[in-house]
Amino acid sequence: MFPKKGKASYFTFLLIPHTTHTPRSLRFPTWALYMAGVLGGIFLMATALLVVYVVTIQQDYRQIAALKTLNQQQAVEIKELNQQFLELQERVAGIDAQEEAIRRLMGLKLEAMVEPSAGTLADEAVVDISLGQGGPVNPVKSISVSRSRGSVGIFSTREIQRELGNLAKEIKFREENLEKLKQAVEADPAYYRALPNYPPAQGRLTSPYGERPSPFGGKRREMHAGIDLANAHGTPVVAAGEGVVSFAGVKSGYGRLIVINHGHGFITSYAHNSKLLVNEGDKVGKGQKIALMGNTGRSTGPHVHFTLQKKGEKIDPLYLLDFDRLGR
Length: 328
What we know:
Elements: E1 10-15, E2 24-29, H1 30-106, H2 108-112, H3 157-187, H4 189-194, E3 204-207, E4 210-213, E5 221-224, E6 227-230, E7 236-238, E8 243-251, E9 255-263, E10 266-276, E11 283-284, E12 289-293, E13 303-310, E14 313-315
Antiparallel strand pairs: 1-2, 3-6, 4-5, 6-13, 7-12, 8-9, 8-11, 9-10, 10-12, 10-13, 13-14
Helix pairs in contact: 1-3
């Protein structure tokens, strides 16, 4: 392309003005024009590449800005959906609490049990064997009840929306069930009055229902078919529900004992009293004072040994009693 060495080659450009001025000529070597063309091409290519790069960068910036905005919107949406999810779960928990309270009042929880618990307590229950305990010796029978609790997680938008839909359906079902339970309570107030769910005494739970080491020492274990509530000597003992006193007297191991038949398959007993305030055949109301706490019979200190029977079977009273009212 370039002229061979030794042979000068030029391009002459003649400039002819439209005026009377003398024409002028410009002469350039051929190689200079070739170099100018190459440099011009390189410049044009570089300019084109620069333009493409700038356009691409601008598009990337716009995409990044759009994604950032979208992520912020999704973050807000997920936060709002999670809040709705947690609020609905709290609503379900509230319905469950109301339903549980009504079932406790109506004794419906007992009907649903497969078998009674062995020493199952509320989470806040504290056992202290240094206070009053007692009762006759019974053979050990191991029984257990399993319980499960749900958990709350943080999910994606789609998962949260699905869970919200499921929770809405569950809430509707729970609310309908709760309304039926309320109607059941209102339809049978006599059953509620007789239901032995009122705490028999204010005191500390010193021995739960179930297998326990003997409070009188040694390695022997025994079945404690009730609960022990300890308090000061002379603390009032009250009827857990409306009923008729079927026994009021002294019984071996139990000391001064009261037994009440509440009907509907419920029978309660109150042992180790220092003084009995009712007689056999008396009708008593729920919460009525029937005895004074004492230490008679097989006992290590002042307490009331409370038992609950449902259709002839002794069961854990804490399934029916309102544990929060025991005055721990």
